[in-house]
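Notes from the 1:1 (GR / supervisor)

We went over the backlog. Supervisor wanted to see one worked example end to end before approving the batch request, so GR pasted a single chain during the call. The sequence is below; no edits were made to it. Supervisor asked that the structure be written out right there so they could see what the output format looks like.
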Amino acid sequence: MFSGGLDSTAMLHQLLTETDADLRVHHIRMANREQRAEAEQAAVERIIAWCRGRYRPFRYSESALDFTALDAIPIDYLCIAFVACQVAIDTPRCNRVAVASLARDTDIENRSARQRRVFDAMYECYRYRKLGEPELQWVYPVYHATKRELAARLPRELLELTWSCRRPLREAAGFRPCGACKACLARADI
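Structure output shown during the call:
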């Protein structure tokens, strides 16, 4: 699962350069009142093009969830579980889902467990229909890294293409990070 942020870009870079696994990279364009979908989409498109020009082939797909009519911001990790299940079923012989969660993320152990429970409940419905693989594993390739370590692993040009702000500010030439949201603050040390 790919957002165009530092964590998922570092995960993509690692999977492309350190494995020979067939990859399906999937981005969820998640529109909500934070209004970050356009900024993330622009970063995703630049990163995918950059990686395709420098690394081995991979399959790319995207989908969208639109919550702009809601005041509440959806829980990202549960939306990811829902879409990951659909992508896994749609990908023949898919036996792993890679997620760029970090150990230092807030409440990550409980979040990851809840995410997998949602996924497993949905996937079981497909297994009942004889779809999907008998076993599917969630993997966290960059789990033990810090933001600074992830940034250091990336080529400078690729790092500069990533986007992490949750509340971007629109400008004539595109977007700029707000500098105040949780994601901007977490990235301030790199």
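Supervisor's comment: The chain has one domain: 6-187.
Batch request approved.
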